[in-house]
Design a protein that fits this description.
CATH topology of the largest domain: Nucleotidyltransferase, domain 5
Strand order of the largest sheet: 3-2-1-4-5
Shape: globular
Order of helices and strands: EEEHHEHEHEEEHHHHHHEHH
Oligomer: single chain
Helix content: 40-55%
Largest sheet: 5 strands, mixed
Low-confidence stretches: none
Mean pLDDT: 92
Number of helices: 12
Radius of gyration: 20 Å
Length: 293
Amino acid sequence: MAHTDTPATGPYLIGVDGGGTSCRAKLLAGPHARYDVVLGPANVSTDFDAALGTINAALAQLADQAGLTMADLATATAHLGLAGVMNTAIAARVAAHLPFTQATVTDDRPTTIAGALGEANGALAAIGTGSFIGRQVAGKIHGVGGWGFYIGDQASGAWLLRRCLEEVMLAVDGFAAHTDLSRAILREHGDDPGRIVLFSLNSQPADYARLARDVVAAAETGDPLGARLMHEGAAYIHRALDVVGWNPTEALCLTGGLGPAYARWLNLPTISAKGTALDGALALAARAAGVVR
């Protein structure tokens, strides 16, 4: 959706925030014209081709909204912060499939930190489909986590639901007592543990994350299983903040779709983020272009 009817003029700046649940892209075309698009998941490690298809579709929609050709759009300075960019080889592979002559591709950590903190010192716990914890001091970032659903992303939405299903199956086998949450999840699968197994075999991290709110809601009403899992996630965030060297005199932001839900379980002073990861991507694009915003 375009934010303004002002005609698009250069210089063009593009920011992209691609995650396991959605891909958000924004075009700044001159001092007043802004255009934005939200599409589906864009994790380049989970499904590279689908992610690039989503990203390029978002860029085409931005061009269409702004009345620009793709040749016009190719002159933009862009920064893409994408889940699944695990190394420079993946970043280069993504860049090779983009139309830009000047684009930077990173994982979503720098963009999330730039959006939340600007250039200020502090830390954040970015908890969405995936997760990472980062601290910025004098422009330098130390981050931990973000290793993906199968071997990391502790405290994330996908992790939270996966851990919950694990506990449901332990209750089915008699290792633990059922709670209202575990019974509700079992009912959602027709009281058939085999259907839970099939869900686990056929689902992507975003599918897990979409159901994580059920765990959060149960925890907030006192369900023992939900509360235990939220405490477990909060304990990981505490440990991660210790690892990156954060201390309570510094700012701390909880970002992402699930980050604020951990506030009561962390019991730490927090501030609101200055902006989103998409704002951070645009700020980094502007910095690369030498544009003052």
